[in-house]
């Protein structure tokens, strides 16, 4: 899939624990883990906003489009 979630990278860069982020955002650690792995079909804007506020980042820092993967499928 050409969309990659970089939440794990952002957590590591900021030395933040998943547990702390999940608590702040108001979601379970299990759901945060699924989000980190890119195994979700969507995310609410409210959730994305809270993640960005906690990590002091932009949505584009968390979600990237990897066009190179498209060439592999052709």
What does this structure look like?
The chain is mainly alpha-helical and 74 residues long. 59% of the residues lie in helices and 8% in strands. It has six helices and two strands. It has helices spanning 7-13, 18-25, 29-36, 45-55, 59-62, 68-73, and strands spanning 3-5, 63-65. A two-stranded antiparallel ribbon has the order 1-2. Helix 2 (18-25) packs across helix 3 (29-36). The longest helix is centred in the C-terminal third of the chain and has 11 residues, at 45-55. The protein starts with a strand and ends with a helix. The model has no long low-confidence stretch (mean pLDDT 91).
Short account of what is shown:
The protein is mainly alpha-helical.
Please name the defining characteristics of this protein.
74 residues, mainly alpha, two-stranded antiparallel sheet, 8% strand
The strand line-up of the biggest sheet is 1-2
- Element order: H for helix, E for strand: EHHHHHEH
Tally of contiguous helical segments = 6
Our estimate of the beta-strand percent is 5-15%
CA radius of gyration? 13 Å
For the report, how would you describe the main beta sheet?
Answer: 2 strands, antiparallel
Round the mean pLDDT to the nearest integer and report it: 91
Q: Which consecutive residue ranges, at least 5 long each, have pLDDT under 50?
A: none
Shape: globular
The total strand number stands at: 2
Secondary structure class reads mainly alpha
Termini separation comes to 13 Å
Task: Please estimate the helix content.
Answer: 55-70%
């Amino acid at each position: 899939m050409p969309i990659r979630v970089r939440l794990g990278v952002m957590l590591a860069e900021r030395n933040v624990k998943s547990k702390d982020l999940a608590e702040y955002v108001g979601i379970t650690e299990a759901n945060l883990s699924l989000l980190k792995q890119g195994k979700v079909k969507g995310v609410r804007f409210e959730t994305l906003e809270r993640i960005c506020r906690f990590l002091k980042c932009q949505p584009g820092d968390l979600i990237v489009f990897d066009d190179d993967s498209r060439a592999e499928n052709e």
